[in-house]
Amino acid sequence: MIKVTHLPLAKLTTLGVGGESEVWTVHDHQELLEAMQAPYRPLGGGSNLVVSDAGVKERVILLKGTLSEVNLEADPELSSENLHVTGWIGAGKALPALVRQVQKLGLSGMEGLVGIPATVGGAVWMNAGTRYGEMWDALYCLEIAYQGKITVHHPSDFPYQYRSSGLPEGAVVSRVRLKLTPSNPEDVQAKMDFADHARKGQPKARTAGCAFKNPGGVSAGKLIDEAGLKGLRVGNAMVSHEHGNFVINLGGATAADVMELLRIVREKIGVPLEMEYEVWE
Predict the structure, then answer these.
(1) pTM for this predicted structure
(2) Sign of CA dihedral 245, 251, 255, 256
């Protein structure tokens, strides 16, 4: 049964900003399609997101129930000695927990996603990743809800690229299947440790992740650092001292604080910076 509540989205976002909105929690495909019959916005783990202090007028959809279940067993018709194609994985599943489950089974292919605070659906939507791998690298196929239908697609059906899935606006990822490589838990853990160590400079405070995409392969964080902008603050939003491409919430920051801080940073950097954050207004 669909659960409808009113919540400040600050409670559902990693940055901790966002006003009150109507939240619909759905548990299966039928409920998802029902929730999509009026203006909506799907919400995953709440990372990579800045929500207006006024909230949003659309209903916000969270995926739970069967849309967060996981089947990592190999499909015998599609798998081989060197390929492990999983069953269906719900888009509402927390990505960090999935990465850990995959490691424990000795399956390789998701190590580069370690530590990303997203749901599977959110990671697919923005093609989340690090220099060690992206979400779409591990996709065998994906299922989406769009225009009243549930359809299954191959990744090549969409023009996915760096930090973008190319999915049509309004599509909601409902489930995915992964293509992984049989390995062993120890080797997979070693790869995860290596990828995680490379992220040690990132702040542990409330943040939405990297604020800007790397322009032309150049590190946005390095550009911000070289401009002397670490520690720049607007209200209770501040450019992290640990990593220049992270904005942190010192406590009680507003979306207005964050957006003004990002505006100042872009103004002071000599090259155009494209936001990695999604902004809900």
Answers:
(1) 0.93
(2) negative
pLDDT tens for each residue of the chain, 281 residues long:
999 999 999 999 999 999 999 999 999 999 999 999 999 999 999 999 999 999 999 999 999 999 999 999 999 999 999 999 999 999 999 999 999 999 999 999 999 999 899 999 999 999 999 889 999 999 999 999 999 999 999 999 999 998 899 999 999 999 999 999 999 999 999 999 998 887 777 888 899 999 999 998 899 999 999 999 999 999 999 999 999 999 999 999 999 999 999 999 999 998 999 999 999 99
Asked if residue 276 lies in contact with residue 211, where contact means CB atoms within 8 angstroms, the answer is: yes
For 24, 170, 210, 238, 244, the CA distances from 220, given in Å and listed in that order, are 36, 29, 9, 16, 8
Q: Which of 100, 163, 233, 266 is catalytic?
A: 163
Cα 212 to Cα 209: distance, rounded to the nearest angstrom: 9
Query: Angle at the Cα of 67 (from 61 to 70), degrees rounded to 5?
Result: 145
Tokens of 196: 């995680």
In total, the chain counts a number of residues equal to 281
Q: Which residues contact 239 (CB under 8 A, 6 or more apart)?
A: 224, 229, 230, 231, 232, 233, 246, 247, 248, 261, 265
Token couple for 189:
């853990």
163 assigned to active site: yes
